[in-house]
Specification:
This protein has 161 residues and is mostly helical. It contains five helices and two strands; from the N terminus they run αααββαα. A hairpin with a 2-residue loop joins β1 and β2.
Length: 161
Amino acid sequence: MILQKVLSIKIGFNMLPEEFLSGLINIRDTFDEVLLEVFEIVAVDMLSAEIYEIQMKDKLGTFYASKKYIDYRVEKGRQVAYVDLTLTGDMFRNIQVVEAYVDEGRALVSLGFTRDFDFYKYNENLKRYGAFLEPDEKAIGEAKIDVTDYLFKRIFEQLIN
């Protein structure tokens, strides 16, 4: 009788079916919490991208209404080729995600300002330019991909931990 040696190689990690099912139950129980955490991260990324679009491109138009304001911006060393809503940068610097939540199946975020004056500036600019911080369809599509990527990563982490 010839004995054969069996070489056993373990690749990755071992997981019993019970462990896998327990991990899935844990994911199901914490999914809303994880989704909101992930969405908050992605929302900050989207907000940053929108601010970049305003500051670096002519998203809001190519003219300032007042010659006096144009002269003031030039005196301060700011560009006047297009509206960028950035004389001091304070308004954009002081925007924060206050809360992420789910409403009627949609993940949403509430934004807030750390200073009342920046909230006032935002509202005045909202009157002038409309909802200038709302992402377009392309940005929303990219955010959905980001959320999916983050969720898969978190699900995998929960399964192996």
